[in-house]
């Protein structure tokens, strides 16, 4: 299912920095008429507004406050594309003293946040002709890493939910893209100790535009991600994206 951002309105969570900011910029550069920049602090979207003017509309949004998700959906009734980029990372291995607390927090933000976003915006997208929904997952959704195992577990769960969303949102004409970046130059990558090998966030923004146009479900935008994606391709095509019937 193909989607062209040109002439459309988008909603991007966590749009004030890192990957979210790069996604917003790419969408605007490829012809989006307006991007709602969903951020915790409205002032943090000022650089985007300075560059793109009134094509950027900051909206208060916080995954930790579900009511802001519902409120944003009531305001942004003209969106055709929703990009759920916002997420959290806690560096916690499975035996760490804070591992359970870390996982609970990451599940709440990365999984329940995704579900709240989908539930809030699915009716909006349907009313506007279907549109598209993009979820930022991670290569960690496919391979766990001991130092941040709880994050990987939360992203694996989010990826599972994203697969289900592809089916249910597809029925209403909404394209779904699951994005699986490797190390990208963000504060999150630095906190995970991956800063030295991280690549530009622009790869994600531009990759999303192309994946939407090409009607692709999976996007592996950077060097590490492409390596993982190449190894995963057969399973993705023949199992995840296939129509399987229980026998």
From TrEMBL:
Keywords: Oxidoreductase. It holds the Pfam family adh_short. NCBIfam families: PRK08264.1-6. PANTHER family: NADPH-DEPENDENT 1-ACYLDIHYDROXYACETONE PHOSPHATE REDUCTASE. Belongs to the short-chain dehydrogenases/reductases (SDR) family. This is SDR family oxidoreductase. It comes from Leptolyngbya subtilissima DQ-A4.
């Amino acid at each position: 299912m193909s989607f062209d951002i040109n002439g459309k309105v988008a909603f991007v969570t966590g749009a004030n920095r890192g990957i979210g900011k790069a996604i917003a910029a790419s969408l605007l550069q490829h012809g989006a008429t307006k991007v709602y920049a969903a951020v915790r602090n409205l002032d943090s979207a000022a650089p985007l507004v300075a560059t793109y003017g009134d094509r950027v509309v900051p909206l208060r949004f916080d995954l930790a406050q579900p009511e802001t998700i519902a409120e944003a959906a009531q305001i942004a009734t003209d969106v055709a594309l929703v990009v759920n980029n916002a997420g959290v990372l806690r560096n916690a291995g499975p035996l760490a003293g804070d591992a359970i607390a870390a996982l609970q927090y990451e599940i709440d933000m990365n999984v329940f946040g995704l579900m709240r976003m989908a539930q809030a915006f699915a009716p909006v997208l349907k009313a506007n002709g279907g549109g598209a929904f993009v979820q930022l997952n991670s290569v960690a959704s496919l391979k766990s890493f001991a130092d941040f195992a709880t994050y990987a577990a939360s992203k694996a769960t989010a990826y599972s939910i994203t697969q289900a969303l592809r089916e249910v949102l597809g029925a209403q004409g909404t394209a779904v893209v699951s994005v699986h970046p490797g190390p990208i130059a963000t504060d999150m990558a630095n906190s995970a100790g991956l800063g030295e090998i991280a690549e530009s966030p622009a790869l994600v923004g531009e990759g999303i535009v192309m994946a939407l146009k090409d009607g692709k479900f999976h996007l592996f935008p950077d060097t590490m991600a492409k390596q993982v994606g190449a190894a995963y391709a057969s399973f993705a095509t023949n199992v995840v994206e296939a129509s399987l019937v229980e026998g």
